[in-house]
């Protein structure tokens, strides 16, 4: 990778020139829906000025150069695409160990559900995460943060959920906070204490729900460790009734809501997300017309996770086209986790969105940037290249934005900037 030399003259001002396309995604500060999802507000051969870590001007080369300081550091992007940093609105950023052994067993024919029934799956990651110290989790989280940044992702939502005790959930959330402070990756924390029923509560799920509501939630909010609360709502894990209890308590505590919904069964989880005014309902592979209508009526954003469908070898992708046609503000995300979606690559997710869910490359890019930012209540800060926003942007190894989803497993970005700073990736 060719890195431009650091400028001593004016470190506060950066002039980005010679793009093939400056993909701004400029537009209203709300989720883009329907045909809006195809409007990327591209400035052909555009330029951009960054001042004090924020975007100060966007336009043609001549327009932007006219307002730049003569001492601005010039970044010549060599006729490449410049676009906002990806916003990944659903990740399990931190976990100890990996499940490559289970991957091999699944390649040999065992299903994800069979694996879980034998004590594998989430519960095996819970065992290794419980055994890790907070410091060890921070080290792992920093490594993962690097993977995201190298792929052009500058903001992630990051969930707890592999601790499942008060101590271990707080340990995970503190580690997420530390990774956000120690790296250039903006981390938005979500408390997912109800990710799985831990071994010691196998025979007493209501007891675990009590623990989540009465011991974990108060401590999480007291330490301001999370912005959102999430739950894995699935009949064989946490029923709609249990999910309503947890999410209602979280709402009273001031947390926003996200729900793992309709992944394996369509059993009312999307409707619950709508009833409680959740910010997002995530997965939705099994969603039917009633689920889509409920999300639409309540303004809940669907977060689609095609990587988790691909990696478990399923064919059942979420009905993205029906959701776009219904006017939902669709988001796509990696669901980065060691079991069902071991990828930090938003480019790969865009490819799957296009090839498997029949989204267009423009819709996929909108879903991976501004719509994702809206789903994290960050639409005023990131997700598009507009004046006043944080200068998180990516110089892609492409001349046309459609190549981002086209070269799957492709070359990766040429340069990534977070807050106007070029990262050495
Ligand atoms: Zn997930």
Mean pLDDT: 95
Q: What is the terminal separation in angstroms? A: 9 Å
Low-confidence regions = 1-10
DSSP, total strands: 16
Query: Which architecture name of the largest domain does CATH use?
Result: Alpha-Beta Barrel
Strand percentage: 15-25%
CATH names the topology of the largest domain as TIM Barrel
The CATH class of the largest domain turns out to be: Alpha Beta
- Class by alpha and beta content: alpha/beta
Bound compounds, please? zinc ion
How much is the radius of gyration in Å?
21 Å
Helix content: 25-40%
What's the tally of helices? 16
* Form type: globular
**Main sheet attributes: strand count, strand direction, barrel closure:** 8 strands, mixed
Overall number of structural domains: 2
**CATH homologous superfamily annotation of the largest domain:** Metal-dependent hydrolases
């Amino acid at each position: 990778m060719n890195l431009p030399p650091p400028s001593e003259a004016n470190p506060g001002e950066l002039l980005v020139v010679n793009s093939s396309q400056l993909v701004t995604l400029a537009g209203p500060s709300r989720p883009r829906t329907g045909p809006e999802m195809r409007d990327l507000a591209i400035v052909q051969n555009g330029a951009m000025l960054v001042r004090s870590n924020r975007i100060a001007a966007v336009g043609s080369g001549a327009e932007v150069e006219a307002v730049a300081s003569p001492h601005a550091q010039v970044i010549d992007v060599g006729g490449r695409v410049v676009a906002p940093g990806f916003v990944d609105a659903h990740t399990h950023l931190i976990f100890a160990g990996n499940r490559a052994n289970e991957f091999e067993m699944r390649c040999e024919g065992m299903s994800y559900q069979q694996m879980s029934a034998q004590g594998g799956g989430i519960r095996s990651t819970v065992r290794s995460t419980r055994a890790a110290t907070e410091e060890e989790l921070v080290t792992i989280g920093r490594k993962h943060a690097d993977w995201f940044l190298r792929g052009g992702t500058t903001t992630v939502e990051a969930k707890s959920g592999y601790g499942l005790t008060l101590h271990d959930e707080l340990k995970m959330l503190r580690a997420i906070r530390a990774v956000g402070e120690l790296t250039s990756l903006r981390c938005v924390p979500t408390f997912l204490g109800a990710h799985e029923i831990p071994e010691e509560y196998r025979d007493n799920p209501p007891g675990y729900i009590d623990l989540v509501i009465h011991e974990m939630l108060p401590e999480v909010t007291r330490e301001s460790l999370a912005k959102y609360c999430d739950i894995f709502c699935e009949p064989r894990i946490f029923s709609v009734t249990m999910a309503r209890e947890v999410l209602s308590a979280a709402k009273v505590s001031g947390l926003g809501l996200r729900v793992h919904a309709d992944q394996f069964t369509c059993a009312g989880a999307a409707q619950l997300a709508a009833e409680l005014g959740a910010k997002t309902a995530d997965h939705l592979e099994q969603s039917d017309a009633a689920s889509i209508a409920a999300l639409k009526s309540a303004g809940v954003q669907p977060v689609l996770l095609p990587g988790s469908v691909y990696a478990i070898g399923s064919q059942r992708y979420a009905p993205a086209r029906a959701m776009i046609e219904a006017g939902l503000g669709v988001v796509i995300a990696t669901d980065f986790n060691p079991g069902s979606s071991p990828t930090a690559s938003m480019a790969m997710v865009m490819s799957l969105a296009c090839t498997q869910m029949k989204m267009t490359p423009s819709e996929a890019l909108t879903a991976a940037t501004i719509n994702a930012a809206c789903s994290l209540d960050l639409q005023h800060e990131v997700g598009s290249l507009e004046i006043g926003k944080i200068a998180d942007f990516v110089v892609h190894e492409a001349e046309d934005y459609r190549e981002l989803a086209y070269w799957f497993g492709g070359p990766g970005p040429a340069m990534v900037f977070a807050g106007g700073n070029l990262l050495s990736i």
